[in-house]
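ingest -> validate -> predict -> emit
validate: passed (alphabet ok, no gaps, 394 aa)
predict: started
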Amino acid sequence: MLLTVLIAASCCGAALAQTQAQAKAKSQYHVSNLDTLGGTSSGGNSINDQSWVAGYSRLPDNQSRHAALWRNGSILDLGTLGGPNSSVTWNVKNTEGIIVGISQTAAPDPLGEAWSSAAFYGPPYNVGFINLGFVWEQGQMRGLPTFAGGNNGFATGANNLDQVVGWAENDVHDPACVSPQVLQFRPAMWGLGPPDQINELPLIPGDTSGAATAINDNGQIVGISGICDQAVGRHTARHAVLWENGGVTDIGNLGANWWNTPTAINQHGDVVGFDGDPAFVEGDILHAFIWTKDNGIQALKPLRGRVPQHVDSEAYGINERRQVVGVSCDANFVDCRAVVWDHGVYPTDLNDLKGDYSAHLESAKDINNLGEITGRAVDPNTGVRTAYLAVPVH
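emit:
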């Protein structure tokens, strides 16, 4: 009798587990396009727990883009610091009404540098101007200071303790910089004022440049440490690092000494991002990762069973439930798909969960604690790229 009960319980347990797995696999999203500022390209890069989406949208002439905030069903143009372009490029996560990003000023760059932000704007005005990290709050945008003698800065994340992170130039003309980059730059944490105060974060011993990319409310910061190089990844991202308690720790890599870039950290201190491939120093192929204090660094794989085969994966956002979002691509980046890793090594294609939404979800850039996701979708008929919001259907 006891054996019969145990067998029955086991069968019921197995059936329940299978039903739960099937229910999880069938969970759907209601996906909608977010308004634009009139151009044909926009993208959502950040979503907080108030469902504020931040990113960018091109203007009607498609010559420049502005940082944008979507909230309460409408879009807000955050403006610029005087130049043609601005953008929110990383997941900010702040819930106190602060948005941070990058903006061109009206001043020409005296050294002719392209700076890190050029890759986030697009032509024709993506170079030629000094760029600063910005803070937007209460309807006003202001620039953040650089280190003494430096021209350019970049802001990526903000916590709820009036702390902002990013990187900024100093006055050192570094021979390790690759033209047109001239000046060395260091990872920065700004304490918001007034006045706003910039603080330098330590590098791995022997390194000379670096950048901070995300911060949580426990003061844990992640970023990169390396050399000046081209000011965008590659050898500047020799080490993926965690700053806490005044120190810096190398969190490891997946086998390469380049492009090792954390993109997000949750309140538990779990970190996601992407690492380089030993065979591709220029970053042609990247590999998503998750790092935890318990398990160290682990690879997050691309989609299986795709034709052409997917070999590139990049993780961009993580919530408190350790749901991770990002992108999976083939080697030529012809087929790129927004994905979610939900406690597994292999992801799920969000295009399989989008219901009757017609556009192709090509990237997922952030996820909040409600499970809401933002990123960029492309209309297969027109090629127009649009910021979207995906809300789980319970």
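The radius of gyration is 21 Å.
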